[in-house]
Amino acid sequence: MRIRQAHIDDGPQLWGLRLEMLADAPLAYLDTLDRAVARGLGEYHHRVRGWVTEPDRTLFVAVRDSALVGHLGVVDERGYTGLVMAYVTPAVRGQGVLKGLVDAAAEWSKDAGRRELLLEVMERNHRAIRAYEKLGFTATGNRHPHPYLTPFMELEMVRPA
Ligand SMILES: CC(C)(COP(=O)(O)OP(=O)(O)OC[C@H]1O[C@@H](n2cnc3c(N)ncnc32)[C@H](O)[C@@H]1OP(=O)(O)O)[C@@H](O)C(=O)NCCC(=O)NCCS
């Protein structure tokens, strides 16, 4: 397993991973499979271009046998680093892939002088919350309503980079 930054050539595989992710964990993200499919591949390639070219963000991918098996987006939020789009494909879960991605995020953050990693996770996503706690994240106490799944709340978690 190797962790690296995404390349523009990863576009087709990233699109496959995104559709898989939205089907596998429909409540975990601020997007839905229907919306992603309606926007289409062209719009997603535009997003990928942003991830690989914009200086304030990058997308780390986990690669096994040249297949992308997970990703984590990191964004400069001016003062802290925001983590988004955490996903690991089911076949390699429970093997520490998330740790590899978070370690890469922490290095990226420290290199830029930002000492804090912050994320939001759906309150009922217990497996993800446990995985983040195992990596040293703790709840800040802040909770926000999910933008369109209104009964659901998102929990904010933080850890030092
Ligand atoms: C949450 C997620 C990113 C964790 O990634 P991961 O690389 O599997 O993380 P870990 O290796 O630390 O495993 C986390 C836990 O998954 C569970 N797990 C183990 N094997 C598993 C498997 N085959 N399938 C599902 N879960 C498994 C275990 O409870 C494990 O905890 P443990 O090590 O204490 O036993 C991944 O499960 C995932 O992508 N889930 C769906 C999307 C999601 O919820 N993303 C978070 C958005 S905020």
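^ coenzyme A complex. Residues 55 and 70 are 22 Å apart (CA to CA). Strands lie at 2-5, 57-64, 67-76, 81-88, 116-122, 138-145, 153-160.
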